[in-house]
Amino acid sequence: NKGNQSWSLSEFMKQSQQIQKEFQASSSSILTQVSRGVLVGLVVGAIVSSFRFFIEHFFHFVQGLYKDLGRSPINWVIILSMYLFIILLASQLIKKNQNVKGSGIPQVEAELKGLLQIDWWTTLWQKYILGILSIASGLMLGREGPSIQLGAMGGKGLAKKLALSPVEERALIASGAAAGLAAAFNAPIAGLLFVVEEVYHHFSRVFWVSTLAASLVANFVSLNIFGQTPVLNMPDHIPHIDLSSYWIFLVMGIFLGLTGYFYEVAVLNIGRVYQKLGAYFKVPAPYYPIFAFLLILPIGYYFPHLLGGGNQLVLDLAHVPLSIQTLIFYFGVRFIWSMISYGSGLPGGIFLPILALGSVLGALVAAVLLQFGLIHSNQLPLFVILGMSGYFSAISKAPLTAMILVTEMVGDIRTLMPIGLVTLTAYITMDLLKGAPVYEAMLEQLMPEVTSGSDVLTLIEIPVSEKIAGHQVRDLNLPRDLLITTYQHNGKNSTVHGSTRLYLGDSIYLVVKETDIGRVKELLL
């Protein structure tokens, strides 16, 4: 039945044929999955690489305007006119399409859970144009969240053009999201892991092969445009810390976990601050960017090197030792203004700003240790790296992604042991504080706005977890609107019966409503 109503015969046959098509799609060959991943990688690589190219060049132009404000007053006119244009454009686009706002990662999660159906083309071109203008304007926003959403929309667009089934469409959305991160940061393995840890939440044969192929190809496209130098290239030789001093990494991990918790509390509540400001000054929500642009002006005038996502700041910190007072000041400015920037609702992410804040905290820890003679000055880059990984791990609660992302971005695998120790400690600290993965928490805040999911039946594949392993299907306490159809054991598919016993690590195929995908995964995983 469908709610309290029965399916008509024609509806039932149509749904059955669709589910059969999806099952055939889930059984497609590896070559088919890889070829689709390659196609996604080429398309998304071109989209995100051009997105990154325009952001970098436009940002350098804006930063140059700020640096010459004292000598060229006409620059004030240019900057203010540019900000006015962005505010007016954003207000019109966001009124019509809320999916253009912010990072875009929660929207991708909502779509993969069946809670949201996004118009891929409208969101793609609007996010692309407005994202370039917003991120390059000097606000402390990152390109990675929008890049992930642009990649997901590119993957969805390809699925629509190829007339693929819903299960294949979700696979291409996930592949596009990973490819977007790979092209944004030249980090293909981190792209795959991020989708697994933060977006998809489990490995699935239907998607992981195409996702890896898409990430590698998108990264290849990006490397051809930006070169093979790592995004955050560090000094060639970073001296190791003696094993007897590894307690430093444990303390540092706890520190990063605590500070990461306060970051999450702030970023999840900045929307309320904007609502109060809007109510007090009678400014409607689509015009909230007015506050962000007004408040960024003094930072651009006095500290233009602190503008933007923070890529250059990370590189500077790794090469130039700064005083404890300066680092505390940098952290305060970056923390407050990254909140102001993200809360405005303009397209832009927190990914790179989090890494920048983590690098400042890492440099701060190093500065304190240098005061006590516990480390050498040439070990500063190591602590910048550890700060990024630990801080991101705590806030995202995606430790594997944090480790591999930072390792790929700095291009040095020799620091993986300290990274792992700091990252794990920061993650445990955040978990003990009951901190939630920041993007899932953002999705929960988005839920009241999510009304466009579909009740159409679809097929999903999930692994047999410890929660249900060892049980017979008849013993599972399943909702009435969920049906396990097929069981995959040792690479072979078989029809599920009540007596079928499920074993850890095998896969099951389920028929569910699209809007229940997330709920079912939580129930069975």
> For the terminal residues, how far apart are their CA atoms?
26 Å
Globally, the shape reads globular
- Order of adjacent strands in the largest pleated sheet: 1-4-2-3
Q: Output the structural class.
A: mainly alpha
Rounded to the nearest angstrom, the radius of gyration is 24 Å
Summed over residues and divided by their number, the pLDDT gives a mean of: 89
Overall strand count:
4
With helices defined by DSSP (H or I, 4 residues minimum), what is the helix count?
19
Helix and strand run: HHHHHHHHHHHHHHHHHHEEEEH
* Largest sheet composition: 4 strands, antiparallel
Low-confidence stretches: 1-5
Oligomeric description of these chains: single chain
Strand content: under 5%
Keywords, please?
globular; 525 residues; 4-stranded antiparallel beta sheet; mainly alpha; disordered N terminus
Structure description:
This protein is mainly alpha-helical and about 525 residues long. Helix content is about 65%, strand content about 5%. It has helices spanning about 10-25, 30-65, 75-95, 105-110, 120-135, 145-160, 165-185, 190-200, 205-225, 245-280, 290-300, 310-320, 325-345, 350-370, 380-395, 400-410, 415-430, 440-445, 515-525, and strands spanning about 455-465, 485-490, 490-495, 505-515. The chain has a four-stranded antiparallel β-sheet with strand order 1-4-2-3, sandwiched between helices. A hairpin with a 2-residue loop joins β2 (about 485-490) and β3. α2 (about 30-65) packs antiparallel against α6 (about 145-160) and α11 packs antiparallel against α13 (about 325-345).
